Amino acid sequence: MGRVADATSALVQLLDFSPTDAEAWSELSDIYLSQGLYPQAIYAMEEVVVLSPNAWNVRNPVGRSPAKPYANRLSSDSCSSG
Predict the structure, then answer these.
(1) What count of other Cβ atoms lies within 10 Å of the Cβ of residue 44?
(2) Structurally, how many domains does the chain consist of?
(3) DSSP string computed for 23-70
(4) Which of the pair, 75 or 51, is modelled with greater confidence?
(5) Rounded to two decimals, what is the model's pTM?
(6) Cβ distance 49 to 58 under 8 Å?
């Protein structure tokens, strides 16, 4: 507790070294989500889904996330702009 910035920095450094680490992306997404940084959390979770497309336990929490309304807005914005 209280070392969120250190954890975020460590995960970003790890992902610079190993960008295919789905668990690290997931942890980073959780941290961003806990901080209310929804665009960053969504991006990190998208990386998890790309790296582990068949992981059912990854897809389920995304649908229940507090970021879902924001993600839905992003999806509708991208559909209407194309």
Answers:
(1) 22
(2) 1
(3) HHHHHHHHHHHHTT-HHHHHHHHHHHHHH-TT-HHHHHHHHHSTTHHH
(4) 51
(5) 0.69
(6) yes
